[in-house]
Structure to design on (325 residues):
């Protein structure tokens, strides 16, 4: 079964058409699916329409939040409610075309775990298109996963992926990156992008600033999430080395001035002294933070595997059951 998650925020005008297009596609291609609408605090008639669709079609279910909790929370709720072995993310604004569903499934069946959409011909204003290109370039440079459109709302992935990654804040746009870090196979396909027919975009300029901060978070989580001291310790040791070299140089100057009588001037009013002391203190703090982070990972990460299993042999499964018994 295919589970389609659709976060909804004041999209009452789009929902009936979106539902009908999904039904037409599933009927034409004989796709067994369920549709999960997650009402993320809508103030219009969205929930009323979702309830009506659910009463009419048993394949449709709805989840209603008490207030707006943002898209990542809506998708997390959808993942938990999904019954299918394959999960698709889709926006409710009709810009994602349900006719692309069969192509995503075909690509997934080629052996991939995540299929990301690529709005090759994007029908958005220029002030959204060009910053998005820069953002995608930055993601590729920092994470090593090269995709044309990380932020595309149309994504398909196996339930195994949903079980192993945790999204919060605005990390939903980094699902391919998080999956790739766990060893899943990620690819992309160009899709048909449509103009918005109803409502307005929910994203503004602040989205790009938050996206950059989230990118730094993802880079840290995927690169040093299980070994934070490797990063913080490296920064700390570098700062300690710089501080030690600066203080050693100033100590040598002091010895030449006071022991051998050379007129090299006092060291107390030299900027290098303040910089060296600051670097030494910063280095010690970074190493201390790294040790604290290692303690947190050691005590809170006991029930979270740092690896991802693709498949098992029957013997392995039987041995694990005997151990559990």
């Amino acid at each position: 079964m295919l589970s389609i998650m659709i976060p909804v925020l004041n999209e009452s005008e789009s929902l009936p058409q979106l539902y009908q297009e999904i039904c037409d596609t599933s009927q034409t291609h004989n796709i067994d699916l369920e549709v999960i609408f997650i009402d993320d605090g809508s103030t219009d008639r969205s929930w009323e329409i979702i309830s009506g669709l659910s009463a009419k079609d048993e394949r449709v279910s709805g989840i209603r939040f008490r207030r707006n909790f943002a898209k990542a929370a809506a998708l997390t709720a959808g993942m938990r409610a999904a019954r299918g072995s394959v999960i698709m993310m889709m926006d409710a604004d009709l810009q994602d075309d349900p006719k692309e569903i069969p192509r995503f499934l075909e690509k997934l069946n080629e052996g991939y775990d995540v299929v990301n959409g690529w709005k090759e011909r994007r029908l958005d204003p220029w002030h959204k298109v060009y910053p998005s290109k820069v953002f995608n370039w930055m993601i590729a440079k920092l994470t090593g996963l090269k995709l044309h459109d990380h932020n595309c709302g149309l994504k398909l992935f196996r339930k195994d992926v949903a079980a192993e990654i945790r999204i919060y804040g605005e990390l939903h746009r980094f699902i391919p990156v998080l999956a790739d870090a766990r060893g899943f196979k990620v690819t992309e396909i160009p899709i048909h992008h449509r103009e918005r027919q109803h409502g307005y975009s929910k994203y503004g300029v602040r989205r790009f600033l938050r996206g950059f901060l989230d990118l730094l978070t993802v880079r840290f989580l995927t690169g040093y999430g299980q070994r934070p001291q490797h990063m913080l310790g490296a920064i700390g040791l570098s700062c300690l080395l710089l501080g030690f070299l600066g203080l050693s140089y100033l100590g040598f100057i002091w010895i030449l001035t006071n022991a051998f009588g050379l007129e090299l001037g006092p060291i107390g009013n030299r900027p290098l002294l303040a910089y060296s002391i600051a670097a030494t203190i910063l280095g010690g703090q970074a190493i201390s933070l790294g040790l604290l982070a290692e303690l947190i990972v050691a005590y809170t990460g006991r029930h979270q595997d740092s690896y991802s299993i693709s498949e098992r042999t029957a013997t392995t499964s039987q041995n694990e059951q005997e151990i559990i018994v």
The CA atoms of residues 112 and 185 lie 5 Å apart.
